[in-house]
Specification:
With 128 residues, this protein is of the alpha+beta class. It contains two helices and three strands. Helices cover 34% and strands 16% of the residues. The protein starts with 23 loop residues before the first helix and ends in a 10-residue tail after the last helix. A hairpin with a 6-residue loop joins strand 2 and strand 3. It is elongated. The chain has a three-stranded antiparallel beta sheet with strand order 1-2-3, covered by helices on one side. Helix 1 packs across helix 2. The protein has one domain: Double Stranded RNA Binding Domain (2-Layer Sandwich).
Length: 128
């Protein structure tokens, strides 16, 4: 109607051109990888930080996974993972151990920085 549908400008409703949905095994594998990132991130941060995951599909139907960290004060930070078809064929899983480590460290550092930037300069640091 307004051109904001996935089929806008397409005279046919042929869904063969759309990316296929994830199989249940692929969805489990993606979920396992994202939960691994969240678990590793939790190891770097104290309990006051809230960490969550979400699996969604983009406008074109491609899968996207997100890991978000909400620090006790400051803005939340997140990382998105959009696997390719070839990622589902790797033996090490959709998200490699190296990538999980890198994303977890980055999220933890960004969340800690949000807290640091949110604190006033007159507040004494609790640890040096």
């Amino acid at each position: 109607m307004y051109g904001n549908t996935p089929y806008a400008g397409n005279d046919s409703t042929d869904r063969a051109a759309q990316p296929p949905a994830l199989t249940p095994d692929q969805r489990r594998e993606l979920r396992r990888g994202v939960v691994g990132v969240a678990a590793r991130t939790r190891e770097f941060l104290p309990d006051e930080y809230v960490i969550g995951t979400e699996l969604t599909a983009g406008m074109d139907g491609t899968p996207h996974a997100f890991v978000a960290v909400h620090p006790p004060i400051g803005s939340p930070v997140s990382a998105g993972i959009a696997p390719d078809d070839g990622d589902f064929e790797r033996e090490e899983g959709i998200i490699s151990a190296e990538d999980r480590e890198e994303v977890a460290r980055s999220l933890a550092a960004q969340a800690a920085l949000q807290v640091k930037q949110s604190l006033d300069s007159d507040v004494d640091a609790t640890a040096r």
